[in-house]
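Revision sheet: structure tokens.
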Amino acid sequence: MSKYYPPQDQVKQFNCIHCGVFAKQHWGILTFGYHSTTKSPVTYCQCEHCRELSYWHQSRMIIPAEAPVAPPHPDTPASIVDEYQEARSIFARSPRAAVALLRLAIQKLMPELGEKGENINTDIKSLVAKGLPVQVQQAFDFCRVVGNNAVHPGEINLNDTPEMGQHLFNMINFIVEDRITRPKQIAELYAQLPEPARAAVERRDA
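Predicted:
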């Protein structure tokens, strides 16, 4: 999955909030009428690829209201897409509420990976025992710790550090890429091998 560059105020290139394409962005300031010299506090940004506009106030995107965070990975299970998209839609207004939804998404993802989905910490331990790579374990624990701080008072104040919540979206996509997309891609390639070759592998491993 390619790197996602979120929309940022006055930045000249990023992934468009409308079309998702990494493209040049053109900025301007709203004015009151053609002949007015009074400038609005609202700026606008137009994507060079799709020509759609976004509007910004005090360095924050206000239209569309959807937060400038990464969309769900294409292989994200249907069971958690709704939570992910809802978290994305409210992140700009309430990072804590968005992260709480993402914590729920992580818990619902666990049964998709063969775990019980009752306790995230226990499920991570089980995955580690099955050979979960350290990087993926750390991604899971990042989601767990930040998510817990959104639900219960903790050391992380997401209203003061909303970027921690933004990273959570990226971590979930990283987990989906590693645990779902890569095994699927390898299985599809392996299935293209001639039947005798696959039968020989099965005899060897038996």
